[in-house]
């Protein structure tokens, strides 16, 4: 009977530690003032708008290059615009990843929090 009580208290203390960590994170987020949040949102919005402009440019320029290829060499010739499309496409993929997923994945703040948590 005593071991069951000890086990239950351990389970409760582990749950309370997890709940405390979640509460601490919420408090930290709430402490961040609105100006910092607005600045972060502004940076994200700029990155996403930049990606959209980059995608638009990619489509227009590559359509033009395909037109040049088609009208100068014909459909039976070597498709050289593929090199421009691939090179620029890789850069555009990185820009997309940074604009829409970069704040979550390669975040220095999150890595710092992980290391801080491991320290305790």
The domain count comes to 2
Structural class: mainly alpha
Largest sheet: none
CA radius of gyration: 26 Å
Q: What fraction of residues sit in β-strands?
A: under 5%
How many β-strand stretches? 0
Q: What is the element string, with H for helices and E for strands?
A: HHHHH
Shape: elongated
* Unreliable stretches covering 5 or more consecutive residues: none
Question: What portion of residues is helical?
Answer: over 70%
* Mean pLDDT, all residues: 81
Q: DSSP helix count?
A: 5
Alpha carbon gap, first and last residue: 33 Å
What can you see in these coordinates?
- The protein has 120 residues and is an all-alpha fold.
- It has two domains: 1-31; 33-119.
- 88% of the residues lie in helices and 0% in strands.
- It has five helices and no strands.
- The mean pLDDT is 81.
In summary, what is this structure?
This protein has helices at 2-31, 34-73, 81-100, 102-105, 108-119.
Layout of strands and helices, then pairs:
Elements: H1 2-31, H2 34-73, H3 81-100, H4 102-105, H5 108-119
Task: Label this structure with key terms.
single chain; 120 residues; 0% strand; mainly alpha
């Amino acid at each position: 009977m005593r071991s069951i009580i000890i086990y239950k208290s351990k389970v409760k203390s582990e749950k309370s530690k997890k709940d405390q960590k979640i509460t601490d994170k919420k408090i930290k987020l709430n402490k961040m003032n609105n100006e910092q949040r607005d600045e972060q949102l502004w940076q994200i919005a700029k990155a996403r708008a930049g990606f959209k402009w980059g995608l638009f440019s990619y489509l227009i320029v590559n359509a033009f290059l395909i037109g040049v290829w088609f009208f100068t060499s014909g459909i039976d010739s070597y498709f050289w615009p593929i090199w421009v499309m691939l090179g620029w496409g890789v850069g555009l993929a990185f820009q997309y990843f940074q604009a829409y997923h970069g704040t979550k994945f390669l975040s220095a703040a999150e890595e710092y929090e992980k290391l801080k948590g491991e320290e305790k």
